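A student in our group prepared the protein record below, which I am reviewing. What it holds is a sequence and that sequence's fold in token form. My question to you is simply how this chain folds and whether the tokens agree. Do not assume that whoever made the record got everything right. I have pasted the whole thing underneath without changing anything:
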Amino acid sequence: MKMTFMGFISGLRLPVVLCSLLFSLPVTAATVSIEQKPLLVNDPLPPNIMFILDDSGSMDYEHIPEGINCSNSLYSSSGRLSRTDRYWCESAEYNQLYYNPDAEYEAPVNGVGDSSGQASFDDAWLNGFSSNRDYSTLNLYTWISSASESPEAAGWPASDWEFSRYRTYDDGIYCGDFDNGVCTDLRVDDDGDRDRRYWLVSDYHFEQFSKRDDRGLYCSNIRSGGQCLFDDISEDDRDSGGSTSRWWLVIGERDTSTNPVLQEGWKPFRYFVYNDSASGCSDRSNSDYQNTSCYEVRYVPANPANPSEPASELVHLSDAYNVRHMQNVANWYSYYRSRLMTAKSGISLAFDNLNPAYRLGNV
């Protein structure tokens, strides 16, 4: 059967009308609200949070950002600066991980939300997060050595060192050989056996400095308060060589009665501020940042009248500038000195205010 053109049009009339009605209806899809929680649960569930912390080797670096002209490790095993000629690495403007005088370095909290404790300027922890942190500390009054050689010779002892011969199970320091009554072979005994030796009875302590005649005993792992276990005392019997910085054994008691600011041969903690008004420093280019003449030194503690000078009197220590910065520096050194330490401190403080109902996991 043939369908005429008018019949074809009549056959399309109903679908066209229905489509016209559909397109003429109001659009309501934009007002549909999709439920964001299970429909059968009355109380909302706290979110699950998974936190991942990068603890790779680069997190132990002591500079930020990448690519700047600073060593990955700015500090030696003793905790002091390994190089003191790169002022830009001691400036927060170039090395953003170094001490920033405008920042407040708050002590982090531990796993139960308690403060990890304020660090001490004269006994700062090398790692405030370590469970053995009290055994590895640094006196920040002795940040920079101003003398290449110590005024005290710590090599083989002089004739006024006293020895006594007896037998004991105790570990100790003894003389293995004498020449005309003067000890020429100082040694350490840490085997726990009952030995009869010429034991050292004079008072001694350890001080860190450099000396070219490397003969003598030194401490490889100085502990809190300047103590050293006998297992950590080693012998260096070289008669010559380059200047070596170590914690050398020195005769006599450590003088704790003197002003700690005036320790001979040392200067306290320092940082540098960039001076763009100095000649050739206005562009703040990379070469400017690595120009030592573009920086001004600041000491902590400092002379209140001139922060570019170290403090020289006890009264200076009670000045508001020094009180604030000494605590701030101690906390920075113990909790923020490396990338990983900064991350741990920031994370602990940020999560301390987290709703306890939140479920947190970390990797």
Remarks:
- Residues 5-24 form the longest helix (20 residues).
